[in-house]
Amino acid sequence: MVGLGPGAREYLAPRALAALQAAEVIVGYKSYLNFIQDLLADKQVVSSGMKKEVDRARAAVEIAATGKTVAVVSSGDPGIYGMAGIVLELAGESIPVEVIPGITAANAAAAVLGAPLMHDFVVISLSDLLTPWETIIKRLEAAGSGDFVAVLYNPRSQGREAHIETARQVLLRYKHPDTPVGIVRNACRGEQSSIITTLGQMAKEDVDMFTTVIIGNSQTRIIHGRILTPRGYRL
Ligand code: SAH
Predict the structure, then answer these.
(1) Distance CA 101, CA 119 (A)
(2) pTM value?
């Protein structure tokens, strides 16, 4: 299980690179394989579309069972909304699985914005493909009432345009409209862009499936164009 990090090669861990080089077979979602195109020569490649995670995991386990070394790639970290869970579920005891971590979207987006995650934070995916929407709302409520910094993955995609607006409304029940919000698109890869706004002002049009949204806690400020959640040091 290999985490590719956010995309640009310099954010791929050396351990991950070594595993990709050593693998006989590489399994992954098509657009993630584009990040590692140059490493695919002379390898068997098994790729499939976005919602085919189970097929990909099954294929990987079946090939590994024949004795081959298989690298299953995920963007970011394989254990954060990635392929590690499903592969471990399917692999059983007979196939050894190594999980190689990667820089997840939360880290990458936070670094672009400044230092928004200096205090307790939660990560919530707004995708209701595998999670009931009521559960997502409950977790947003908990993030709000707990005054956590909130990192939102999968904030918008086809079929769920309204989710980010609903999430904003839920958080506004607990967080001030002036709470800083950072929206980072394609963090740490080509075409990176970012917007710093507030919970009251943020526009859902700025959010798509390539963005990660970070919403501050009650102490979070915008200073010199960066988002900062103070750790609490007395200066
Ligand atoms: N395993 C991945 C997350 C997969 S879920 C990881 O650890 O990063 C897919 C969601 O992650 C996207 O909808 C987006 O919200 C976020 N994401 C992944 N890469 C990103 C990047 N480079 N910039 C901004 N958001 C990203």
Answers:
(1) 22
(2) 0.96
Cα angle, residue 164 at apex, residues 146 and 122 outer, rounded to 5°: 30
CATH number for region 105-228: 3.30.950.10
Give the residue, out of 212, 213, 214, 215, with the most ligand 1 atoms within 8 A of its beta carbon, to mutate for a pocket test. 212
In the β-sheet with 226-228, what is the strand arrangement from edge to edge? 114-115, 226-228, 221-223
Question: How far apart are the C-alpha atoms of 26 and 47, rounded to whole Å?
Answer: 8
Give the residue whose CA is nearest to atom 11 of ligand 1. Answer: 153
Give the start-to-end residue ranges of the domains of the chain.
2-91, 105-228
Instruction: Show Cβ contacts of residue 157 under 8 Å, excluding neighbours closer than 6 positions.
Output: 127, 208, 209
CA of residue 87 relative to chain centroid, distance: 18
- Model confidence pLDDT, tens digit, residues 192-226: 999 999 999 999 999 999 999 999 999 999 999 99
Taking a C-beta distance cutoff of 8 angstroms, is the pair 165, 156 a contact?
no
| CA–CA dist 122, 109 (Å, integer) | 14
* Residue range 52-109, pLDDT digits in tens: 889 999 999 999 999 999 999 999 999 999 999 999 999 989 899 999 999 999 999 9
| Class of domain 2-91 as given by CATH | alpha beta
Question: From the alpha carbon of 152, which atom of ligand 1 is closest?
Answer: 15
